[in-house]
Write a structure and sequence with these properties.
Layout: E1 4-6, E2 9-11, H1 14-19, H2 39-101
Antiparallel strand pairs: 1-2
Length: 102
């Protein structure tokens, strides 16, 4: 299982990362052309790059999951509405039948 370090948190389960994907900011460092970059800064830049890639993937996964959930909710709502209208039509037909039968 992959462990992810996230600002003081070590996350072994990616689900919390997906849940809070859009909530944390990843600093971006720009280095001027030809400048000497210290090793620690290079390590931070590499870490930030991997974190930003993971964040982008998590945000995308969250968006896909949200879209799928919305589609399933829409489909289920349509089924419930159809069931309700069918039941109402059946009640109306039974009332009409009862009036005709006396």
């Amino acid at each position: 299982l992959k462990r992810i370090w996230l600002g003081g948190l070590t996350v072994s389960d990616p689900q919390p990362l997906i849940a809070m994907a859009a909530r944390y900011a990843i600093p971006t460092m720009t280095v001027p052309e030809g400048a000497v970059v210290p090793e620690k800064v290079q390590l931070k830049m590499a870490r930030d790059k991997t974190l930003s890639e993971e964040k982008a993937a998590a945000v995308k996964a969250k968006a896909v999951a949200h879209t799928e959930q919305r589609e399933s909710l829409k489909k289920r709502t349509q089924e419930y509405e159809k069931e309700y209208t069918d039941h109402q039509k059946k009640l109306i037909d039974l009332r009409r039948e009862a009036k005709l039968g006396g």
